[in-house]
Each structure stands twice: as structure tokens, then as C-alpha cells.
């Protein structure tokens, strides 16, 4: 996968490309989860950490990635036993299994679903 830097939507001959948007790209990882799935999700996140950014700390990982968990069982606080979970975004609504991520909220992310 190739990453392209963010640029303004317009351009002309005199446009100075050094003024392009200076937003650091992040990667978004999303899962729809239940508490019983926590060990499988933990393994998946740890593999992602190892494959993407091996030999760096978890804090450096969290600067490059945003982990978003959609909880369909309402149990979010129990996930705190996992180290990376404390830096994740938890969204919960009881009996909700369908989610929509608004494009404006993820426009600066590359997606891993």
C-alpha cells in the first residue's frame, strides 16, 4: 500500500507545494467486539504491532495507530486488563451490531478493518 501526502484540492503553476497540509497520517484499526472475543482481538492487535512497527514501544505504536472498538455487549471497562486497550477508543451501545463510521472522522486515516 502506498501512502500519499495530503495536498490542497486546488493547484496551479504558482502553487507552493511546501505549504501542503502538514498532518501526520495515522492508521485506523476497527473491530466489532464482544467481551468473549478479547483474547482473539488481543492476538490480532499484537500481531499488527509486531508486523507494522516491530522493535518500538507501545507508546510509539499508539502515536501511529488509532484502535477503535465497537462493543455490541456493553462491556468496555473489562477490556482495561489489556495494555493497548487503555489507549483505544471504545464505542458501546447495548444490542447495537450495525455501525457506520463517518468519512469526516476518518479522512486522515488509512483503514485496516
Automatic annotation (TrEMBL):
Protein origin, superkingdom: Eukaryota
InterPro entries the record matches: DUF707
Name the UniProt record assigns to this protein: Uncharacterized protein
Species of provenance: Zingiber officinale
Amino acid at each position: 500500500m502506498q501512502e500519499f501526502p495530503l495536498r490542497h484540492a486546488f493547484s496551479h503553476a504558482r502553487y507552493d507545494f511546501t505549504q501542503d497540509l502538514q498532518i501526520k497520517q495515522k492508521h485506523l484499526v476497527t473491530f466489532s467486539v464482544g467481551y468473549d472475543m478479547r483474547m482473539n482481538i488481543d492476538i490480532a492487535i499484537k500481531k499488527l504491532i509486531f508486523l507494522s512497527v516491530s522493535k518500538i514501544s507501545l507508546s510509539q505504536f499508539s502515536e501511529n495507530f488509532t484502535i477503535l472498538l465497537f462493543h455490541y455487549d456493553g462491556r468496555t471497562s473489562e477490556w482495561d486488563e489489556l495494555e493497548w486497550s487503555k489507549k483505544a477508543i471504545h464505542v458501546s451501545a447495548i444490542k447495537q451490531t450495525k455501525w457506520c463510521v463517518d468519512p469526516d472522522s476518518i479522512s486522515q486515516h488509512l483503514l485496516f478493518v
